[in-house]
Design brief:
CATH class: Alpha Beta
CATH superfamily: Ribonuclease E inhibitor RraA/RraA-like
Largest sheet: 10 strands, mixed
CATH architecture: 3-Layer(bba) Sandwich
Helix content: 10-25%
Number of strands: 12
Oligomer: single chain
Length: 160
């Protein structure tokens, strides 16, 4: 996968949304891209797990956790599921835990921060809708591109 977000911004200035630089990299892949899948949850990672248990087919899961810093929506086990099921990466508008373990996996992970507290397991939330945070709208079927310079969203595949 050959791209840089800077080059994509230069080549497609009217087609990309640039996310505010709020996220830290945790996964073993610094660069990743793919079609977007979404979940919206609040301090509960049941839908995150259920989604990552499905075949990823190179997609990127965007988790809108409302920016909560109280608990982790993803840990080492879920990041391992993402890797083994073929997800390109996960963006978490919230926290992760098991940061060292996640860093050893070949999957891209971005989150606001790390916190040791686990999330609830009630199954509340929504899968597949449009979510907005960091100044960007993420919708299933759109494409996301992430590298060390930042995160871009486009309505179509810019690499195809």
């Amino acid at each position: 996968m050959e791209f840089t977000t800077a080059d994509l911004c230069d080549a497609f200035p009217g087609l990309v949304q640039v996310a505010q630089p709020l996220f830290r990299g945790y996964g073993g892949l610094e660069k990743f891209a793919g079609p977007i899948e979404t979940v919206r949850v609040h301090e509960d990672n049941t839908l995150v797990r259920e989604t990552l248990e499905t075949p990823g087919r190179g997609r990127v899961l965007v988790v809108d956790g409302g920016g909560s810093l109280k608990c982790a929506l993803m840990g080492g086990r879920l990041a391992g599921l993402a890797q083994s099921n073929g997800w390109s990466g996960v963006i978490v508008n919230g926290c992760i835990r098991d940061a060292v373990e996640i860093g050893q996996l070949r999957v891209g992970i971005r989150a606001l921060n790390a916190v040791p507290m686990r999330s609830g397991k009630n199954g509340a939330g929504e899968r597949g809708g449009t979510v907005s945070f960091a100044g960007v709208t993420f919708a299933p079927g759109c494409f996301i591109y992430v590298d060390s310079d930042g995160m871009l969203v486009a309505e179509r595949d810019l690499l195809g």
